[in-house]
Each structure stands twice: as structure tokens, then as C-alpha cells.
Amino acid sequence: xxxxxxxxxxxxxxxxxxxxxxxxxxxxxxxxxxxxxxxxxxxxxxxxxxxxxxxxxxxxxxxxxxxxxxxxxxxxxxxxxxxxxxxxxxxxxxxxxxxxxxxxxxxxxxxxxxxxxxxxxxxxxxxxxxxxxxxxxxxxxxxxxxxxxxxxxxxxxxxxxxxxxxxxxxxxxxxxxxxxxxxxxxxxxxxxxxxxxxxxxxxxxxxxxxxxxxxxxxxxxxxxxxxxxxxxxxxxxxxxx
Length: 241
Fold this sequence. Notes:
mainly alpha, about 240 residues, three-stranded mixed β-sheet
């Protein structure tokens, strides 16, 4: 059997997390759109709520528009809260849940929340490692099977896998960052009475659905590593026969 770059076994490893990601994305969009139909207690738009939250927390952030749906984010490099049109202009529970989550990230940045600092430090190594990892794995595989240098080839391939492992670490660190931002956001909505107690379940559902997407991303990264480890291990066992 061919254990190369486009092995059909790849689907066995990657299809389950891919389906989980599709499910998570569908749940996020469904929860968010339902949340947009629920007016919040104060009648504030996402843009207005962001200003209220900044006054309440003492954060000095800029707000800027950003295109798309659910593209909202906090950028720690320029202390800017980017809000999509749907969130900025909507006086709904769904919009405020998204804003509160991003303000939660700003609070993490202000307090230098350790997992967030680690994640920020990993961005460049992960980007480099992910790009180089695939190249090194293929080079090592070629050295093993075409040039007949199995020892060197396997070493190069393992270095490539180590690059993929950085992505797993990144997504693993991302989970507590995102969950903590959601907890902070929910606390803000409650303390500031921006969302009625009977509406908190709607806000939580939006944020829990979003959390599932990060779990799916971790599963995808882990599946990729396990696939390449399987390829190397299977190749070694076949050579011993």
C-alpha cells in the first residue's frame, strides 16, 4: 500500500474533526442568528455596549468596523476592538455576547493573562513551523523511499512533525484563553445588567457554540500530527518485515 503524500487513510484521521468543525460552525451561526432576534435589556447596540463596557472597566480601546459575519476580534497590537456591522448595529443579546467576549480578551491583555501571553508568543513559531513542517516531512519521506536514506529521512520527517506539534500546542493554549474571555464577558453582561437574567442562557449558548469551534480546531491539528506519526510508524514496521 502507498503511504505517501495523498494516502486515502488521511480521511480516516481528518474526516471526524472536519465534521466536528462543520457542526460547530453551523451551531455558532444558528445560535448567533437566534441571539440577534432577542432584544437586550438596555436596548443598546453592540457599538454602544462596547463603549459602556470600556467605561465600566477603564479600558481605553478604539473601535473599528470590520467586514463579514462573526469576524469580530480584539487586536492587542493596537488596542482596537473590531466589530462587524451585524454586531455593531444590533441591539440584541447575541450582539452583546460577542462584544463582551472580545472585551474579555482586552481585559486579559490588560492583566497580562498568562495563557494569552503564551498564545501571542506562539503565533510566529506556529506559522513558520506549520509551513516548514509539511515540507520537511515530504523531504524526509522522499529521502527514505527514493534515495534509500531511511535514518536521515526519518529524522527529517520527525522534525517536520515537531513543526505540526506547535500548532497543536497553539490550539491547546487557545482553549483556556477563549473560555476565560467568555467567562469574563458573561460576568460583565450580568454585573452591568446589559442582559436580563432570563436572557443569559441565550448569551451563554452563543459563546459555548463558539468554544466548540476551538475544540474542533485542536482536534484537526491533533489529527494531522497523528496521521503523520502513523505514516512514519507504518513505514518503519513494513521495512522490518
